[in-house]
C-alpha cells in the first residue's frame, strides 16, 4: 500500500469507454446514472489501483475481526449469509439492523481504513462519512438479499459509498413497489412524488470490479432496493466496504 496524495492510495482517474443511455460522464473518471425522481448512482470501475487493491484485500481479510451474526428476517432467526464488521466514529447512535446491534470498532484500530476514507472523501467533494459497514463474501453462496439502507439514523436521503475488493460480483437495483393505498391521503409535509412514467428502467445491474467504487445518492434508498445475489461461479473471496453518514 503505497503512500500518495489521496490518503495513502494510488487512485486511477481515467475511465475507458463512453456513457450509455441514461448515463453521463464526468471528466472520464466516472459514470453517473440518473435513476429518476432525485435518485442517482455513480460508478467508478477503477477507483483504487489494481495491484494495490490486492494488498488491501489481504489486509482486510487478515486483520478485520469478522463476525457472522444471527439476525431476524421476516420474524425468523437465521445466520447472516456473509461475514461483517462495523467501524464508526465515537458518540454516534448505535446501528441496529435485522434485530442485530454490531459492536462499533474505532477507526484508529485500522489505520488503512482511515486512508481509504480520506480517498473517498477526496473523490466525492461535499460528501462526508463517519461510519463503515464491512462485508466479506467467502464464495458464491454468500450474498445479501433485497433491501434498502433506509435506517432512520441515516436521514431521508442517505449517501452510501460502496468499495469492492476481490471477486467480481453482480450488484442489482430494482424499483420499490409503491405501497401507498390508492386514494389514501396523508397529512403534513409531503415527500418528493415518485412518477411511474419517468422513462427510467425499473432494474439496473452492475458488475462490481476489484477496486471499484459505487455510490448511491438522493432518494435511492427510499425508491429502490439493492442486492448481491448468489452466484455459483463466484468461487473466491470478495470484501465490500460501505461508507455511510450517521446523523
TrEMBL record:
Protein name: Alpha-ketoglutarate-dependent dioxygenase alkB-like protein 2
Region (Disordered): 176-205
Annotated binding of substrate, by residue: 74-76, 150
GO BP annotations listed: DNA alkylation repair
Residues binding 2-oxoglutarate, per UniProt: 135, 137, 147, 226, 238, 242, 244
One Gene Ontology MF term: broad specificity oxidative DNA demethylase activity
SUPFAM superfamilies: Clavaminate synthase-like (SSF51197)
Domain Fe2OG dioxygenase: 128-247
Pfam families: 2OG-FeII_Oxy_2
Family: Belongs to the alkB family.
Amino acid at each position: 500500500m503505497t503512500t500518495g496524495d489521496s490518503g495513502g492510495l494510488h487512485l486511477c482517474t481515467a475511465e475507458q469507454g463512453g456513457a450509455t443511455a441514461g448515463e453521463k460522464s464526468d471528466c472520464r473518471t466516472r459514470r453517473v446514472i440518473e435513476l429518476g425522481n432525485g435518485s442517482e448512482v455513480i460508478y467508478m470501475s477503477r477507483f483504487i489501483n489494481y495491484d494495490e487493491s490486492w494488498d488491501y484485500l489481504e489486509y482486510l481479510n487478515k486483520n478485520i475481526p469478522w463476525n457472522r451474526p444471527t439476525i431476524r428476517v421476516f420474524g425468523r432467526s437465521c445466520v447472516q449469509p456473509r461475514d461483517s464488521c462495523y467501524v464508526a466514529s465515537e458518540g454516534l447512535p448505535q446501528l441496529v439492523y435485522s434485530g442485530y446491534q454490531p459492536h462499533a470498532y474505532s477507526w484508529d484500530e485500522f489505520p488503512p481504513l482511515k486512508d481509504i476514507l480520506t480517498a473517498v472523501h477526496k473523490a466525492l467533494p461535499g460528501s462526508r462519512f463517519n461510519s463503515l459497514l464491512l462485508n466479506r463474501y467467502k464464495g458464491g453462496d454468500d450474498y445479501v438479499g433485497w433491501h434498502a439502507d433506509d435506517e432512520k439514523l441515516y436521514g431521508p436521503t442517505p449517501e452510501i459509498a460502496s468499495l469492492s475488493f476481490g471477486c467480481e460480483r453482480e450488484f442489482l437495483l430494482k424499483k420499490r413497489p409503491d405501497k401507498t393505498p390508492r386514494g389514501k391521503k396523508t397529512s403534513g409535509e409531503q415527500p418528493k412524488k415518485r412518477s411511474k412514467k419517468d422513462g427510467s428502467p425499473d432494474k439496473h445491474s452492475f458488475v462490481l470490479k476489484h477496486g471499484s467504487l459505487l455510490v448511491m445518492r438522493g432518494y435511492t434508498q427510499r425508491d429502490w432496493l439493492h442486492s448481491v445475489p448468489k452466484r455459483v461461479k463466484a468461487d473466491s473471496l470478495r470484501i465490500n466496504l460501505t461508507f455511510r453518514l450517521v446523523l
